[in-house]
Each structure stands twice: as structure tokens, then as C-alpha cells.
Design brief:
heterodimer; A: 121 residues; mainly beta; seven-stranded mixed β-sheet; 11 strands; B: mainly beta; six-stranded mixed β-sheet; 54% strand
Chain lengths: 121, 111
């Protein structure tokens, strides 16, 4: 099956620093990648949708200048948390959508990475 | 009121028991309903999905949707220790719209 990796799996950083998280589709090309955030005991929430070669679309309430997304290739998207603060501590999960012929639904073609746990001290 | 409500558990049941996992939702416009399974340190993986009201069966798993009550369920028959995971319900307005997730229910199947 389609595999999506994330790196790092866990990161601890000091408040005010920036952290980059990579999301890679290992065995398929993904024109669309998604970034989710999950706070403890909360739902997985979509932060942004990124299409290869274009600017990301952010969900309401997500600061685009704080969460920089770069989708430079069909297999790689990065999320940079700039000037991280303790309230940014969360579990960040990416997903990649495989291109399929026909009109397959999003959930049929979306594969999730294992997530990155960010702790900001 | 949150869009999707799901009891986070944990829920512990003995091996072989029937497991019932449930979610309620507030937006009657949701048409597609999904269940995901997430093992520790892994991303969610799609188990099954249904469209509108009704039942869908896949092996030991049965998904049930009652749109009139805005209530969805996942039943697991003959539960196995390997079924121990977090189960997330999710739903969407249409086939290409964003997916709204519940908080997930942690399930432990006791050997």
C-alpha cells in the first residue's frame, strides 16, 4: 500500500525557535498533501491543504505566517512552525493524496503519515 | 456544540466480545461517514465508509448510520487483541470535501 513518512517523529525545542517537519510519499506521487494538528484529547483538525507548486490553503484560524508550508515536489511537503511557543505543542500529522483515475473520494485516496510530536519548552 | 462527539474512552473488553463504538454529530448535511483505526505511533488508516443511512459490513466490522438521530456506530465482532487501537469516526459533506474527525476512542481488547 501507499506509504507516507514523517520526519522527525518527535522534536523538543525551545520557545522562539523554528521547527521544520517533513512529509514524504514514499512510493507514489501526491499532488495534494494535507497537514493536521491534534491537541491532547482533541480531534484531528485540518490545518492546511497544499498542492504541488502552489500556495497552501489554510483553514480558518490557522496563521499562515506562523505555519509555513512548502510543497516543492510531488513527494515532499514541509511544515515549518516559526517562532514556536508552548501552545504550539501538539501532534502534527500529514497525509498525501494519491492520484487515481476516476472520481475516487478523498478518504479513499488519502494516506496518513505516522505523525510528529512537537514539544515546545 | 462540537460538530462530532466521540467518547475518548478507554474502553476495555474481553477477547471475543462484541465491541460497539459510537459517535454523534450536529450537522445534518454530512453524507459520508468513515471509521479509521490508529495504532500507537502510526497514522490513521481507513477501515470503512458508508454513504447516508444504513449498514455496511466488512468481515468482523459493521458500520451503521442513523441520519435521523445523527448517530453512527461501528461494531466489531469476535474482537481480537490485535483490534486494540484508537478508533476515529469521521464524516464529510461530499466526496471531495474536508474530513471532520471525532476525538477517537481508545479500545483495549483483553486476552
Amino acid at each position: 500500500g501507499a506509504v507516507v513518512s514523517q520526519h522527525p517523529s518527535r522534536v523538543i525545542c525551545k520557545s522562539g525557535t523554528s521547527v521544520k517537519i517533513e512529509c514524504r510519499s514514499l512510493d507514489f506521487q501526491a499532488t495534494t498533501m494535507f497537514w493536521y494538528r491534534q491537541f491532547p484529547k482533541q480531534s484531528l483538525m485540518l490545518m492546511a491543504t497544499s498542492n504541488e507548486g502552489s500556495k497552501a490553503t489554510y483553514e480558518q484560524g490557522v496563521e499562515k505566517d506562523k505555519f509555513l508550508i512548502n510543497h516543492a515536489s510531488l513527494t515532499l511537503s514541509t511544515l515549518t512552525v516559526t517562532s514556536a511557543h508552548p501552545e504550539d505543542s501538539s501532534f502534527y500529522i500529514c497525509s498525501a493524496r494519491v492520484v487515481t483515475p476516476g472520481l475516487a473520494a478523498l478518504w479513499e485516496t488519502q494516506y496518513f503519515g505516522p505523525g510528529t510530536r512537537l514539544l515546545v519548552l | 456544540q462540537k460538530e462530532v462527539e466521540q467518547d475518548p474512552g478507554p474502553l476495555s473488553v474481553p477477547e471475543g466480545a462484541i465491541v460497539s463504538l459510537n459517535c454523534t454529530y450536529s450537522n445534518s448535511a454530512f453524507q459520508y461517514f468513515m471509521w479509521y483505526r490508529q495504532y500507537s505511533r502510526k497514522g490513521p488508516e481507513l477501515l470503512m465508509y458508508t454513504y447516508s443511512s444504513g449498514n455496511k459490513e466488512d468481515g468482523r466490522f459493521t458500520a451503521q448510520v442513523d441520519k435521523s438521530s445523527k448517530y453512527i456506530s461501528l461494531f466489531i465482532r469476535d474482537s481480537q487483541p490485535s483490534d486494540s487501537a484508537t478508533y476515529l469516526c469521521a464524516m464529510s459533506l461530499n466526496r471531495d470535501d474536508k474530513i471532520i474527525f471525532g476525538k477517537g476512542t481508545r479500545l483495549h481488547i483483553l486476552p
